[in-house]
Amino acid sequence: MPELPEVEVVRRGLERWVAHRVVAEAEVLHPRAVRRHLAGADDFTHRLKGHRIGTPSRRGKYLWLPLEDTNQSVLAHLGMSGQLLVQPHEAPEEKHLRIRVRFADGLGTELRFVDQRTFGGLSLHDNTLDGLPDVIAHIARDPLDPLFDDEAFHQALRRKRSTIKRALLDQSLISGVGNIYADEALWRARLHYERPTAGFTRPRTAELLGHVRDVMNAALAVGGTSFDSLYVNVNGESGYFDRSLDAYGREGLPCRRCGTPMRRRPWMNRSSYFCPQCQRAPRVSS
DNA sequence: CCTAGAACCTGCGAGC
DNA sequence: TGCTCGCAGGTTCTAG
């Protein structure tokens, strides 16, 4: 479940159902799921065994499980279709089950990484001094992080010679925003996705960040966005925010503000949804 | 250095 | 019925 609210829903589930348990055995069923663990699948399983899981953390769309009494964490990225599920041992194997982790306790459940498209995966890394897996040191803080620096983000926008949606999706500037929440925040802010970032004023940046935070918090409150069974929490349940989307997926439907039919435009191998009336294209579009 | 675009995967629904 | 095409919530590498 790709974007920040969906990943945070998963993190909370792991905190409740997986934290403080000791790994008995891990099993890698598809090598691609551990490709970011450069030492390979055998090394991954060997190093997990016998360690206790600490409190799960998250930055943007990445989450990680610290291994207590080590300086390492299991890093997880869900990619486009990854799921982390807590399942009873006897539950039938999912079609795209890639990794299984069993625990040394009598709770009767195991952790499963299921991923249809295999863009996601698990890997083990050393932590930096702030307790962050070293390979994601370049990922910016996310907008729900109390230490996110609004002013630094604004200055970064001004320096870029790019457009606003590209910047929102740039995980080294601001993390956790993906295609859905970018379109939602831009609709709320009445900004066209191809607005150049260089001309952003401080109030405009502040307003946009406010909308990013509002839409993510609203989604989080109802368990995230899921259009289908691919995006679920650790118990396999869907969130409800798809009912509250104002832009994403609403091609041809009336804008909820002005009634103008919403449009979809191919953009960066995906789509951008916007209201042609409320979100006017910049005069010089590149 | 920077930015834009393609590549990486599998499956589903629409259209022929 | 069955084929092909376009599309899907992300990241990363390459070309310019």
Kindly state the number of beta strands.
10
| Order of strands in the sheet with most strands | 1-6-7-5
Catalogue the unreliable spans: none
Strand content: 15-25%
As a percent range, the share of helical residues equals 10-25%
Q: Which structural class best describes the helix and strand composition?
A: alpha+beta
SSE order in H/E notation? HEHEEEEEEEHHHHEE
**How many alpha or pi helices?**
6
Estimate the global geometry from the Cα principal axes: globular
Mean pLDDT equals: 95
- Largest sheet data: 4 strands, antiparallel
Radius of gyration: 20 Å
Query: Cα distance, first to last residue?
Result: 32 Å
Description:
- With 286 residues, this protein is an alpha+beta fold.
- Helix content is 23%, strand content 20%.
- It contains six helices and ten strands.
- It has helices spanning 4-17, 41-48, 150-159, 164-168, 179-188, 202-221, and strands spanning 23-28, 57-59, 62-66, 72-77, 82-88, 97-103, 109-115, 121-126, 263-267, 270-274.
- The protein has a four-stranded antiparallel beta sheet. A four-stranded antiparallel beta sheet has the order 2-3-4-8, with helices on one face. The chain has a two-stranded antiparallel sheet with strand order 9-10.
- A hairpin with a 2-residue loop joins strand 2 (57-59) and strand 3.
- Helix 1 crosses helix 6 (202-221) and helix 3 (150-159) crosses helix 6.
- The chain starts with a helix and ends in a 12-residue tail after the last strand.
- The mean pLDDT is 95.
- It binds a DNA duplex (16 and 16 nucleotides) through residues 1-3, 6, 32, 61, 77-81, 96, 115-120, 160-162, 166, 169, 171, 178-181, 225-228, 230-231, 248, 268-271.
